[in-house]
Structure formats: C-alpha cells, structure tokens
C-alpha cells in the first residue's frame, strides 16, 4: 500500500504523526504478508466451473448484485445501463459465463471477461442500442461502489462500514437523502435535508442557519461534531465558534447512521453521525445554472459545470459555485454566502484513480443565533409574547464572519481481485470573527426589559485528517469476507481570543436600539490542540444468507488547552493536557430471506473526549456510549423500496455538569435512550414517490445530573427526568407526483407534513414545550414540454401555514423561535 504521507508531512514531523505513519505501514505490511494465501483463496472460489443458483427475478441491478456476490466475481457497469431493466432470475447449475448469458438475455447487454473473474457490461453491437453515458459513477462495480439512486431510493451506503454495502444487508439503521429529494424539498441547509428522516431533530436551535445542528436519538450536546464530509470528519472545533458548514447545493447525497460509530471513526456522539458526499466530476458533459428568489429578501445564483478534459475520458472536472443572500426572519440580521468547489478526477488506469478537491467559502454575514426566556417566549409575560422576529442585540455591533477553505484528495488503487487500497486526506483552514449582544433573563421579576451581555470572538483554526484503508475481498470455502484494515490520524489547532462584557438592557416588546456602550470584562485567550490516532479492523462476512459484521478499533487521543493571558488562577503558559486511549467495538448479524425480509441485531460503542475540567483543573473522562439495536428491514423483490423498523437502547456515561456559581464541572451524569423508529421509502410507480417515518424516543437521566431551578440554588435530583430538546414523538410524510401525459405532462406536485411532539424546557421537567405540526409543499414544471429545452422551474414553501412555534428550549433561559414560512422560486437551465 502506498500511503503518500509526503503530501502533508513537514520537515520535522511530530511524534504523533510518526507514530501514525508507523501504524499505517504496519497495517499495510500485515496485508501484504497475507496476500499469497488470500489471493489463492479468491482464485480457488472463482475457478469453479459451475455453481448452483436460486436467485429470484426482479430489477436487473439487484439480480446482478446478488449473482456477483454468490459467484465471487467483480462485475462493472454504469447505473444508466441497468435503469428500468428487469431480469427473470436464475435457478439451476451454471458456469459463470452461462449464468451471465442467461441473466442478460433480452437486455441488449453482454458481459465481457477481463481475466476470468472480472467482467464489464457493454451494449451488444448488433442490437443498435444507444450507448448510455456514465453520468453517475465511472467504473461502477457492484458490491464495491455506492450503487444507483433512483428518485429517493438509494441501494447502497458506505457510512456504516466504509465499504459499499447494500442498505438491506446493513445490520444498523441507515437513512439516505438523495440529490433529487433535496431539490424537490427545497433544502437550504444540511440540517433541512434531514427533515423527513426518523430519529433526527433537525432544528433544535430554531430558525438559525449558522450551524448545522443535528440531534439524533435524543442526544444533543450543542455541537456539530457529528458531521462528516467525503468519509472524513469535518474537523471543526465544537468548543468554539469555529465549525465547518457545507452548503447543500454542493452535495450529491446525505447518509445518516443511527447510534454509536466509534469503531470506524473514532471520537463521535452516541446518537449517530451524518456523512455528506460532495458532487464528483462526470465523464460526460454537464452544465447547469440556476437562480433563486424568495421571501425574507432571499436571492441567489448557482452554477454546476462538469465533463471530460481529454478525448480518452481519463480526466474529468467539476466546478460548482454559489452566491446567496437573505435578510432572515430576525430584524437587523442578514445572511450572505459565496462558495466555490473545484474538483478534478484522474483515472490513471482502470485500477488507479485520484480525485482532487477544494472548497472555498466566504460568509460575510452569518445570521442570528440566540434564544429567549421561556417566560415571554413559551408563555405570555405581562400580557404580551416576544415576537418571532425580535432581535435583542445591537445592529451596530452584531456580526458573524466566517472564511473557510479546505483542500483534499481521494486516492484509490486496486492491486488485484483481492486487494484495494484507499487514502483520503483533507486540510482545513478557518477564520471566524464574532460580535454578539445577547439576552440572559429579565432585569426584575415583573419588568419588560432583558439583561444583555456581549461576547466577542476572534478565532483561527487549522486542521488536517488522513485515513488509510486496505480492503481485501476473498472466499474461504463458501464464505465471502470483506476485510478492512485502516489507520487514521487527525490534528487540529485553534487559537481563540474571546472578550465579554455587559450592555444596557432592552425592552423585549418595544425595542429601542442605540445603547451600544460595552462594559468589558477581562479577555480570554487560549491555544487549543487535539490529536487523534486510530487503527481499526473490520470483517464483513457473507455466509449463505447470513451477514455478519465484526469490528474493533484502538484510539489514542490527546487534547491540550494552553492559557495565553495572565490570570490569577492560571498564569501565562499554563497548559491542561489530557491523554486517553480507548478500545471500541461493534458486532452485527443479519439474515437475508428470499422474500426480502432481513431481521438483524447489532451492538456498537462510542466515546468522545470531554472539553471540561474538574475543580483541580484536570480534564474529565470521555463520555462513553453503548447501543443494542434490534431491527427488521424489508425490500420487496424486484424493487428498490425499503422499509425499516428498529428498536434501540443507548446508554451514555460521564456527562459533565456544573452549578451556576461554580467554574468547574463534574462527570456525574448518565443518560439512557431507548425507542422505536419506522421508515419507508417507496416508489409506488413511475410517477409517485413516498417517504414516511415515525420516531418514539424514551430518554431519561439514569444517573442524576447536578441542576438548579431558576429561583433556587439547591441541587435537584433529576434521575428519571428527560433531557431538554428531546421530543418523545416525531413523524413525517412526504409525497411527490410527476405527470407524464396529457395536458399536465411535465408538472410535479409535492407535499409533506412534519409533526414534532412535546419536549421539556428544563432538566427538572417542570415546563413543557408544546408540540407542533408543519406543512411543506412544492410545485415544479419542466418547460422543455413547451419548447424551452433544459429549463425547469420550481416553487417551494416550507411551513406553508406560517405556524408560530417554539422549536425547543435548552433551559428556561433559552428557548428558540421556530422558522416562519419560507417561499422560494428556483429557475434552472441545463445544457
């Protein structure tokens, strides 16, 4: 395995980096030592003259996928070649060539052999069939790629195993949001793309668009540490204002994995993670431009150009850009964004490819981010309620400016039919400047004025992450193994300069701005570092109709926090260091019935370093999470429809908490979350698509957190209470219908309803946040039906009835206004 660490190493690499290199090389060396015996095992399985098959009929993609697994071959094609084609299946004794001939009979396709175990589909020359372009995935190989995405239905995902695995055969709950779903629903942020996904609360902090908060299975730690891009952690610093955000216009799909996932990714939240896949270069010409206008002064333009660079179609580019701005629903606040993503893919050979990526984003205005007291937001105060447009800051002070740039690559080389090596790398540079005036409670028990405080931030973040993988696919008798060995390393440095102070109060019901004088407190300056090295091993086992997943990972994590200013408690240069090692695992079993049913059970673990210190200044132990999940998946034979039901229980230990009058934390809390999730993705016919889901989450403190009521300082026992921002019930339904005949040909209609049940406004469970129901709608038309080829129009309305609601409360002091009605019209032109 060629690890290519010279792309990012310095002349004097750190000890941790040298250790990571040694670990990666050791993993590669172990794989090379095993090469002769594993390759022999693979050849033995592939050399059999005939096998007995019993594969039911259905979609050609599904039938070929199963055949490739059972025959132990690699079968490459494009998704477009298989689109809309069916197969009668296969039953009886066949050689590989005979079986392929039978399966492809009448399809206009044939399979050409490269070496007896690798095959490529191609059009039959004598049929005169049109050659279909490779617009989705070049060199697509069943069992070793993401698979096709028709409408809202994805067939495969890499999020749970870091290898392409059929969703039906994954022993953990995985949801996928496709590009078509994002467009139909008018998603403006990554969080909004998941509004119709079970187990996910996408707006715990209300109408803010500054960060992509995602609370999963009841867990919301106020960070965005569970977002990944192209297989790598986003690397923002959740303890600061520096968090990476990607605009959904640059994405091809969003995969959501529920539950702990540290065995492949290291530090992570027990609720799950979100994997973003960016748009990749296409090897056929593609050009699209679009313009959007909407309510709240929204207006924007985007372009997406792609195609081959050379005549042999070995090199392809993609250039995507966006300029967008809006006034937002909050007074005196704006959003502005300018982003550009150049990408280049190079296929050096059929076995070696490299994709170079960059993402440049400038956010001059980062919108609003704050909450209101429950008394006034949830309930009337002095006969009045705080407006959902109210801004408690100062127009002349408040700002949020973010500049982020990332550069990376994805390298892959296939040595032979057994071994494939991959290396993913990304470097991130971010600068954030913040000035914010926010409220913190009423000045007196009966007044209409809110206390106001000021926070200022000037942050610089530098980070890189690399993941090395060696994948081996081989047979031992009738059992197929997909073994993944990996070593990853990540490093992050954040310089933060924070200021704070107090500002004159403001009347929440009749605000008057201009009192911008700030009484400053002592500034704070820190240098924060994080370094993580991990090695992992995973074996995916296919034994007849059984699917087993086994994984183990060892992590070494080091964090430090160095004071850069003199303080009485911490002199200049004082540094808090924390070094941790952690072993995590995962195991799963699934049985695949011929009728499309697939029951499964799995166990998984997670950990996450704590950024808080105890009374002695020592870092607290990491939070630990464990999950048991029992589920049933069903995919009707011959379709890509998928139904999933999952029961789960997650236990999290070592939660940190503190009393208001203290400046240190205690790791005393524990939380237990259990529940049920139901999900359905249906393509009822060529015209109608449906999404439906339901979530029941029973989450409570299994060990008391230290807490206080707003009117007292007594310690409250909250064992058995539910955390805030964790609704007990959630449900949604979305339908999209496309007319393809008659006078309505080209028209698209979509509509959805989202229900979020009540949650608690405080950890003592003394006040509820009411449930709310929101309606969304979309209408589109293909103007190519009236002669304007390539032109499409779409109108999206979210919260169609303009429901006024509180999204959630983090405490009685901070409740977050829900997003008001938003309507946007988009015109796109593809040429």
TrEMBL record:
It is a multi-pass membrane protein. It is found in: Cell outer membrane. Residues 73-124 form the Secretin/TonB short N-terminal domain. Its main location: membrane. Gene3D superfamilies: 3.55.50.30, TonB-dependent receptor, beta-barrel domain, TonB-dependent receptor, plug domain. One of its GO terms (molecular function) is signaling receptor activity. Keywords: Cell outer membrane, Ion transport, Iron, Iron transport, Membrane, Nickel, Nickel transport, Receptor, Signal, TonB box, Transmembrane, Transmembrane beta strand, Transport, Zinc, Zinc transport. GO terms for cellular component: cell outer membrane. CDD domains: ligand_gated_channel (cd01347). Transports the metallophore pseudopaline, which is involved in the acquisition of nickel and zinc, and thus enables bacterial growth inside the host, where metal access is limited. Is probably involved in the import of pseudopaline-metal complexes. NCBIfam families: TonB-siderophor (TIGR01783). This is Metal-pseudopaline receptor CntO. It comes from Pseudomonas chlororaphis. The lineage of its organism: Bacteria, Pseudomonadati, Pseudomonadota, Gammaproteobacteria, Pseudomonadales.
């Amino acid at each position: 395995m060629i690890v290519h660490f010279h792309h990012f190493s310095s002349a004097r690499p750190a000890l941790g980096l040298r250790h990571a290199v040694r670990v990666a090389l050791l993993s590669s060396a172990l794989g090379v030592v095993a090469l002769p015996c594993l390759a022999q095992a693979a050849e033995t399985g592939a050399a059999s003259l005939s096998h007995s098959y019993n594969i039911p009929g259905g979609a050609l993609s599904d039938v070929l996928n199963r055949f490739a697994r059972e025959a132990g071959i690699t079968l490459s094609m494009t998704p477009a070649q298989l689109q809309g084609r069916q197969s009668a299946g296969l039953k009886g004794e066949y050689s590989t060539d005979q079986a392929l001939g039978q399966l492809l009979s009448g399809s206009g396709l044939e399979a050409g052999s490269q070496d007896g175990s690798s095959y490529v589909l191609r059009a039959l020359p004598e049929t005169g069939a049109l050659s279909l372009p490779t617009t989705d995935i070049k060199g697509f190989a069943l069992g070793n790629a993401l698979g096709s995405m028709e409408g809202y239905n994805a067939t495969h995902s890499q999020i749970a195993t870091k290898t392409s695995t059929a969703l039906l055969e994954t022993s953990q709950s995985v949801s996928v949001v496709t590009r078509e779903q994002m467009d139909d629903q008018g998603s403006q942020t990554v969080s909004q793309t998941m509004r119709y996904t079970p187990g996910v609360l996408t707006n715990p902090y209300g109408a803010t668009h500054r960060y992509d908060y995602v609370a999963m299975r009841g867990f919301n730690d106020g960070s965005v540490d569970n977002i990944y891009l192209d297989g790598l952690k986003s690397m923002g610093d959740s303890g600061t204002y520096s968090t990476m955000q990607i605009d959904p216009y640059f994405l091809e799909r969003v995969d959501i994995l529920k539950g702990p996932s540290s065995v492949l990714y290291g530090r992570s939240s027990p609720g799950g993670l979100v994997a973003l896949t960016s748009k990749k270069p296409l090897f056929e010409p593609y050009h699209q431009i679009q313009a959007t206008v909407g309510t709240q002064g929204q207006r924007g333009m985007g372009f997406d150009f792609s195609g081959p660079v050379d005549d042999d179609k070995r090199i392809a580019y993609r250039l995507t850009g966006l300029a967008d701005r809006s006034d937002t629903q909050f007074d005196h606040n704006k959003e502005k964004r300018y982003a550009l993503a150049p990408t280049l893919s190079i296929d050096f050979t059929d076995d070696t490819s490299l994709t170079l990526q960059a993402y440049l984003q400038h956010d001059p205005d980062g919108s609003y981010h704050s909450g209101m007291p429950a008394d006034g937001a949830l309930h009337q105060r002095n006969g009045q309620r705080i407006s959902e447009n109210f801004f408690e800051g100062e127009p002349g002070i408040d700002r949020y400016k973010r500049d982020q740039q990332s550069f990376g690559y994805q390298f892959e080389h296939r040595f032979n039919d057994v071994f494939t090596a991959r290396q993913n790398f990304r470097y991130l540079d971010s600068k954030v400047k913040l000035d914010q005036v926010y409220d913190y409670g009423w000045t007196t028990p009966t007044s209409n004025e809110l206390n106001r405080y000021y926070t200022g931030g000037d942050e610089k973040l530098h980070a890189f992450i690399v993941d090395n993988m060696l994948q081996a696919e081989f047979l031992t008798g009738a059992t197929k193994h997909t073994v993944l060995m990996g070593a990853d390393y990540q490093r992050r440095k954040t310089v933060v300069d924070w200021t704070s102070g107090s500002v004159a109060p403001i009347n929440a019901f009749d605000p008057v701005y201009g009192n911008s004088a700030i009484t400053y407190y002592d500034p704070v300056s820190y240098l924060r570092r994080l370094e993580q090295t991990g090695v992992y091993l995973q074996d995916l086992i296919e034994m007849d109709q059984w699917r087993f997943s086994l994984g183990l990972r060892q992590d070494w994590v080091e964090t430090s926090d160095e004071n850069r200013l003199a303080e009485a408690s911490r002199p200049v240069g004082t540094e808090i260091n924390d070094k941790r090692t952690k072993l995590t695992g995962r195991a799963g079993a699934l049985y695949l019935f011929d009728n499309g049913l697939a029951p499964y059970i799995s166990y998984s673990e997670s950990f996450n370093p704590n950024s808080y210190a105890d009374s002695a200044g020592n870092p607290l132990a990491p939070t630990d999470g464990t999950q048991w999940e029992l589920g049933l998946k069903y995919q009707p034979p011959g379709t890509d429809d998928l139904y999933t039901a999952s029961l789960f229980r997650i236990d999290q230990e070592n939660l940190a908490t503190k009393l208001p009058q203290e400046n240190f934390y205690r790791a005393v809390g524990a939380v237990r979350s259990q529940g049920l999730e139901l999900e359905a993705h249906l393509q009822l016919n060529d015209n109608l698509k449906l999404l439906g889901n339901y979530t029941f989450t029973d989450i409570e403190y299994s060990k008391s957190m230290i807490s206080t009521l707003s009117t007292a300082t007594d310690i409250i026992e909250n064992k058995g209470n539910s955390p805030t921002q964790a609704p007990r019930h959630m449900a949604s339904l979305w339908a999209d219908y496309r007319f393809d005949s008659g006078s309505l040909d080209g028209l698209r209609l979509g509509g959805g309803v989202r229900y979020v049940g009540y949650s608690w406004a405080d950890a003592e469970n003394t006040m509820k946040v009411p449930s709310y129901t929101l309606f969304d709608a979309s209408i589109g038309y293909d103007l190519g039906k009236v002669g304007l080829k390539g032109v499409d129009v779409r109108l999206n309305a979210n919260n169609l009835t303009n429901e006024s609601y509180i999204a959630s409360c983090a405490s009685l002091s901070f409740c977050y206004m829900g997003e008001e009605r938003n309507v946007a019209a988009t015109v796109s032109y593809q040429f």
